[in-house]
Write a structure and sequence with these properties.
Number of helices: 27
CATH architecture of the largest domain: 3-Layer(aba) Sandwich
CATH topology of the largest domain: Rossmann fold
Subcellular location: Cytoplasm
Catalytic activity: D-glucose + ATP = D-glucose 6-phosphate + ADP + H(+)
Strand order of the largest sheet: 1-12-11-10-13-14-9
EC number: 2.7.1.2
Strand content: 15-25%
Radius of gyration: 31 Å
Number of strands: 19
Oligomer: single chain
InterPro entries: ATPase_NBD (IPR043129), Bacterial_glucokinase (IPR050201), Glucokinase (IPR003836), Homeodomain-like_sf (IPR009057), HTH_RpiR (IPR000281), RpiR-like_SIS (IPR035472), SIS_dom (IPR001347), SIS_dom_sf (IPR046348)
Organism: Undibacterium aquatile
C-alpha cells in the first residue's frame, strides 16, 4: 500500500501553502465505507460544501454511487477527485472487502472525465487528518500529554476495524499502510475467552475486527446471552447501542462495557507497537456516538493495564475524534500534495515566482515563460527561448544571472535536476540547430508523450475482443509491408512461443495466396501505418471470405480498420516523407506486447516454458511502459 506524506503540522499552514494553486474548479472528495458514503465538493482549501451521505446498499457499484451524487452538480466542472475507501488499495483493481464491489480506478477516472482520481485507504486518509486537528475536534480520554514530533496511532471500529499510524519526518509525517485490524484477537479475561470460544463456532480464525466492530457488537451480544443462558432476539449494532445508551438495558450495557475494554487492550497494543507518544486517536462510526459513556468506560483502565508497561502507557494520551467527516481533511491533503508535486512545484520554481517583482519587465517575460512552460525552456536553445519570451538573448542571460547562475547552461543543469519526474512530458519539435543533448531529449520526450497519450486513448474493449479471438485461434498469420514488417516479425516470434502455429508474410503475392488457404477459426493480424495499402486490403477481403477473423493494427478510421473484425487503433501521425515511422512502430509493438501478455495471463500453467514466457512478456510490457 502506498505511503502518503503531509508536510507541515497543521491545516492552517497547509491551506496557505496550496491555496494559490487551487484551480481547476471544485474538487470531489469522498469517504466511502461499507455502509455509508460521504461526498463533498472542496471549493477552497478546507472549505467543504454540498456534503451528502448516501447509503451504499442503494447502489450496485461505485459508478452509480458517484453518478447519484454528481446528478445535483452537473454544472460543476470537476477535474480532480480523491476518495477514501474502507479497503486495502494495491494497484488499479479494487475489490472491496466488506461490499461486493469491484472496479478499476482508471476506468472510473475515464467514466467521469477526471484528470486526477486518487483512491486511498480510509484510515490512511484519517491518519493524514490528525496533524491538523484542534482541541475542539477531539475528546481526550484519560491522562497523558502528547509529545511533539512523535509517532501517532489511529484506529476506529465501524463496519470493520481500521488501523494506521503517522511517523514523523523532518518536514511532516508519513502514514503507515496497515491492516492491523486483522491480527488475531487476544482475550484478556475469562469473559472475553468465552466470547472467543463462541466466535470459534463460526470462524476458525477470529481476528480483532470480528469483535471490535459493528458486526462485533452483535457477536458479543449473542455470546454474552449464550454465556448467561438467555434467550434473546438478535439485535443490530444500532439497536444494541440505543438499548445501552438510552434504555440502560443490562445485556446491551454489558456488551458495550466488554467492547470498550477490548478496544482499550487493542489500543494499548498499538501504542506499544508504534511507540505512539504522540497519542492514540479513535475514529470510526461507533465510539464517537458513545460520548461521555465511553469516557466513563473500562477503555482507559484497560489501556493502562499492561503490567510492567503500565507507567509507559499512562504517559500516552488517547483521544476520540469528534469533528464530523475528518477523512475529508485527509483526502484533501493527499490530493493537494499530489497535484502540487505533479505541477513541478520545486524550490527553483518557487524562487522564480518570488523574485518576479525584482526583475526588469523583459526578464519577467522570461520568468513567465519558464513558469508556464518549464519543459520547453529546458529543451530549447537560447535563440528559441528569447523568441518565445519576446526578449533578446542577452536578456535571457541576465535573467539567469539574477538567480545566481553563470549563464543559461548552468541554469538548465540545476533546473533539470529540480524538475526530475515532476513535469509532464510533451511533444517538442526537433530543429536542425539542436544540440545532440537537445535532440536526444526531444526524441525521448516525444516518444514518452505519445505512449502516455496512447495509454489514455486505449480501447480496452477492442483488446479484449482481440485476445478472445487469439485464444481460440487454430493458427495466426501476420501480414505487413515496409516498415511494419519488423512489428509483424516480432509478433510471430512471440505468438509462436505460445505453441500457436504462426506465419509471417511481407510480400503482397504471398499473403494473398496464404489468405486463400485460411479456414474459420484462423486469425490474421494486419499491421499498417496508413491502413490504405490496396494489397493488404485485398488480402483482408480474401481472408474474411475464407471465414477467418482479422485484427487490424492501423489508424482508427482507415479502410483497413473498417474491414477488420477488430481494430486496435494507432492514430499517431508522423512525417513519413522525412523519417521512417518511429513512434508508430513503438506503439504497434506495444499492442503486440499487450496481446501477448493478455494471452499469457490465461495460458495453461502446466508447461514450464509457458510460465517462463508469460513472466518474460509481463516484464517486457512493464519495462516499455516505465520507459
Amino acid at each position: 500500500m502506498a505511503e502518503h506524506t503531509l508536510a507541515g503540522p497543521a491545516y492552517a499552514e497547509h491551506a496557505e501553502h496550496h491555496s494559490a494553486g487551487f484551480s481547476g474548479g471544485p474538487r470531489l472528495l469522498a469517504d466511502i465505507g461499507a455502509t455509508h458514503a460521504r461526498f463533498t465538493l472542496e471549493t477552497a482549501p478546507g472549505n467543504f460544501s454540498a456534503v451528502r451521505v448516501l447509503k451504499c446498499d442503494d447502489y450496485t457499484g461505485i459508478v452509480p454511487l458517484i453518478r447519484a451524487y454528481l446528478h445535483d452538480h452537473q454544472g460543476s466542472r470537476i477535474q480532480h477527485a480523491a476518495f477514501a475507501i474502507a479497503n486495502p488499495i494495491d494497484g488499479d483493481d479494487v475489490r472491496m472487502t466488506n461490499r461486493d464491489w469491484a472496479f478499476s480506478i482508471e476506468a472510473v477516472r475515464r467514466e467521469f472525465g477526471l484528470y486526477t482520481l486518487l483512491i486511498v485507504n480510509d484510515f490512511t486518509a484519517l491518519a493524514m487528518s490528525l496533524p491538523g486537528l484542534q482541541a475542539s475536534d477531539v475528546m481526550q480520554i484519560g491522562g497523558g500529554t502528547a509529545v511533539a514530533k512523535s509517532v501517532i496511532g489511529v484506529l476506529g471500529p465501524g463496519t470493520g476495524l481500521g488501523v494506521s499510524g503517522l511517523i514523523p519526518t523532518s518536514d511532516g509525517f508519513v502514514t503507515l499502510g496497515s491492516e492491523g485490524g486483522h491480527v488475531n484477537f487476544a482475550p484478556c479475561d475469562e469473559r472475553e475467552y468465552a466470547i472467543l470460544q463462541f466466535a470459534w463456532k463460526e470462524w476458525p480464525h477470529v481476528s480483532t475486527e470480528r469483535l471490535i466492530s459493528g458486526p462485533g457488537l452483535e457477536l458479543i451480544y449473542r455470546a454474552l446471552a449464550a454465556r448467561h443462558q438467555q434467550q434473546v432476539r438478535a439485535l443490530s449494532a444500532q439497536e444494541i447501542m440505543h438499548a445501552a445508551l438510552h434504555e440502560a438495558e443490562p445485556l446491551s450495557l454489558e456488551t458495550l462495557e466488554c467492547f470498550c475494554a477490548m478496544l482499550g487492550s487493542f489500543a494499548a497494543n498499538l501504542a506499544v507497537t508504534l511507540g505512539a507518544f504522540g497519542g492514540i486517536y479513535i475514529g470510526g462510526g461507533i465510539v464517537p456516538l458513545m460520548g461521555e459513556k465511553f469516557a466513563a468506560s473500562l477503555f482507559r483502565s484497560r489501556f493502562e493495564a499492561k503490567g510492567r508497561f503500565s507507567s509507559y502507557l499512562a504517559q500516552i494520551p488517547t483521544y476520540v475524534i469528534t469533528t464530523p467527516n475528518p477523512a475529508f481533511y485527509g483526502v484533501s491533503a493527499i490530493l493537494s500534495e499530489h497535484l502540487r508535486g505533479r505541477s513541478g512545484d520545486s524550490s527553483l520554481l518557487d524562487r522564480i515566482q518570488q523574485i518576479q517583482l525584482e526583475l526588469s519587465p523583459a526578464e519577467r517575460r522570461v520568468a513567465a515563460l519558464i513558469l508556464e512552460n518549464p519543459r520547453t525552456v529546458l529543451n530549447e536553445a537560447i535563440a528559441e527561448i528569447s523568441r518565445l519570451a519576446d526578449v533578446s538573448q542577452p536578456t535571457v542571460i541576465r535573467f539567469c544571472r539574477s538567480l545566481g547562475f553563470t549563464g543559461l547552461a548552468d541554469f538548465k543543469l540545476k533546473f533539470a535536476s529540480s524538475l526530475t519526474g515532476t513535469i509532464p512530458v510533451r511533444h517538442s519539435q526537433v530543429r536542425r540547430n539542436d544540440s545532440t543533448h537537445d535532440l536526444s531529449a526531444k526524441v525521448i520526450d516525444n516518444t514518452v508523450s505519445a505512449i502516455l497519450n496512447f495509454r489514455d486513448q486505449l480501447e480496452v474493449h477492442a483488446i479484449d475482443q482481440a485476445i478472445a479471438l487469439l485464444r481460440k485461434a487454430n493458427k495466426v498469420e501476420f501480414y505487413a509491408m515496409g516498415n511494419s514488417r519488423a512489428v509483424a516479425l516480432d509478433g510471430q516470434h512471440k505468438f509462436f512461443r505460445f505453441r500457436i502455429p504462426t506465419a509471417n508474410y511481407g510480400d503482397a503475392h504471398l499473403f494473398t495466396m496464404a489468405a486463400e488457404l485460411l479456414n474459420p477459426g484462423d486469425v490474421v493480424i494486419v499491421v499498417s501505418n496508413s491502413g490504405k495499402l490496396p494489397e493488404l486490403l485485398n488480402a483482408v477481403d480474401v481472408a474474411l471470405n475464407a471465414g477467418a477473423d482479422v485484427i487490424a493494427i492501423a489508424p482508427h478510421q482507415s479502410p483497413l480498420a473498417k474491414k477488420a473484425s477488430v481494430c486496435l487503433a494507432v492514430n499517431h501521425t508522423e512525417d513519413n516523407a522525412t523519417f521512417l515511422s518511429m513512434i508508430s512502430r513503438i506503439l504497434q509493438l506495444l499492442l503486440i506486447d499487450i496481446l501477448a501478455v493478455g494471452l499469457s495471463v490465461d495460458a495453461p500453467h502446466s508447461a514450464d516454458s509457458r510460465e517462463k514466457e508469460a513472466t518474460r512478456l509481463s516484464h517486457l510490457l512493464i519495462s516499455h511502459l516505465d520507459s
